[in-house]
Design goal:
CATH architecture of the largest domain: 3-Layer(aba) Sandwich
Largest sheet: 6 strands, mixed
CATH superfamily of the largest domain: HypD, alpha/beta domain 2
CATH topology of the largest domain: Rossmann fold
CATH class of the largest domain: Alpha Beta
Strand order of the largest sheet: 4-3-5-6-11-10
Radius of gyration: 21 Å
Structural class: alpha/beta
Helix content: 25-40%
Length: 367
């Protein structure tokens, strides 16, 4: 725990927070893109340590939260097929679709299994040649290389009974979309350290220049986040708009080249639909034509009704930085972890789930 505890020391946290307070001279709004960072901010009460002039807003950085209603409905339809073993990370099982979720499909008899790795699903396909094994390949650039490896191995092993239901997202186009919005209130960004550990941060350079906002690659512990905030605030106060790397212990400018190579062999960039946000061009990944046989949508061609989207969830407004979870009239009432109206209340990285879990630490006058 030594190398974890040193990033959570109370005295160091308060010292850094004091530096932020001493630096801020005017109102600023900073968005942390990653749901893991949101979770840490709320858990450790970091907003309450900062000056009222400085507001942290929560971006679309939770892959569970932004996976579209349509793809959830298609996942449920595929999972319901008797020949299918449907594999997914556990936090996807309770994400609500138009009518139910994967957990309820499992209760109704579907063979839905929570796994910890796509390679586990590949192994299941090897062990069950008479079944169709489908892995729900979701996530940002962080999980994409492992999912690419699963398809790569399936092709090498000639596993015709394995496929991926792909719902991958790319962070830089989301930042560009937020920066382009006329009503955006975001003036600086904390970029997700684990995404940049894979992809590097060269893609952020033109965004910082185009929109004239600072972007700081940031880790996930309290000291990481406060240092990232301090670096961002210093730039804002000085009128700078550069990309800086707070998370140098894990991130280099070019990223992880072997991981990037595997990703690029298997996937290509495509338009993606972000739940609560809408369609963003070139913001997702799809399987290349060479791997089309492992595309679950092409293999099963699920037919679904037009998704019903009016659940009362304001996740889109939260993920664009316009509102916080406590602004939602359903938060903690009709919408709770045991009965979520939207994905941000389901995922461990969802802003609403974090606010609900650590509600005693969220100030009632945070605005």
């Amino acid at each position: 725990m030594k190398y974890l505890d040193e990033y959570r020391q109370r005295s160091s946290i308060h010292k850094l927070a004091a530096q932020v307070n001493d630096t801020v001279t005017r109102p600023w709004t900073i968005m942390e893109v990653c749901g893991g960072q949101t979770h840490a901010i709320v858990k450790y009460g970091l907003q309450q340590l900062l000056p009222a002039q400085l507001q942290l807003v929560h971006g679309p950085g939770c892959p569970v939260c932004v996976t579209s209603l349509e793809i959830i409905d298609k996942a449920i339809a595929i999972a319901a097929r008797p020949e299918v073993v449907f594999c997914s990370f556990g936090d996807m099982l309770r994400v609500p679709g138009s009518n139910g979720d994967l957990q309820s499909a499992k209760a109704a008899g579907a063979d839905v299994r929570a796994v910890y790795s796509p390679l586990h699903a590949v192994r299941l396909a090897e062990e069950n040649p008479d079944r169709e094994v489908v892995f729900f390949a979701i996530g940002f650039e962080t999980t994409a290389p492992a999912n690419a490896m699963a398809a790569f191995l399936a092709r090498r092993k000639r596993l015709r009974n394995f496929s991926l239901l792909v719902s991958h997202f790319l962070v830089p186009p989301a930042i560009e979309s937020i920066g382009s919005a006329a009503d955006s209130r975001v003036q600086g960004f904390l970029a997700a350290g684990h995404v940049c550990a894979v992809m590097g941060y060269e893609e952020y350079l033109p965004l910082a220049s185009k929109f004239r906002f600072p972007i700081v690659v940031t880790g996930f512990e309290p000291l990481d986040i406060l240092e990232g905030i301090l670096m961002c605030v210093r730039q804002l106060e000085q009128g700078k708009h550069e990309v800086q790397n707070q998370y140098a212990r894990a991130v280099v400018r070019s990223g992880n080249m072997p991981a990037r190579s595997m990703l690029e062999q298997v996937f290509e960039v495509a338009t993606q639909d972000w739940r609560g946000v809408g369609s963003i061009g070139n913001s997702g990944l799809q399987l290349r034509s060479e791997f089309a046989e492992f595309d679950a949508l092409k293999k099963f061609r699920p037919v679904i009704a037009v998704p019903e989207t009016d659940s009362g969830c304001i996740s889109g407004q939260i993920m664009l930085g316009h509102n916080k979870p406590s602004d939602c009239p359903h938060f903690g009432r009709e919408c709770r972890p045991e009965h979520p109206l939207g994905a941000p209340m389901v995922s461990t990285e969802g802003a609403c789930a974090a606010y609900h879990r650590y509600s005693r630490q969220v100030s009632t006058n945070e605005h």
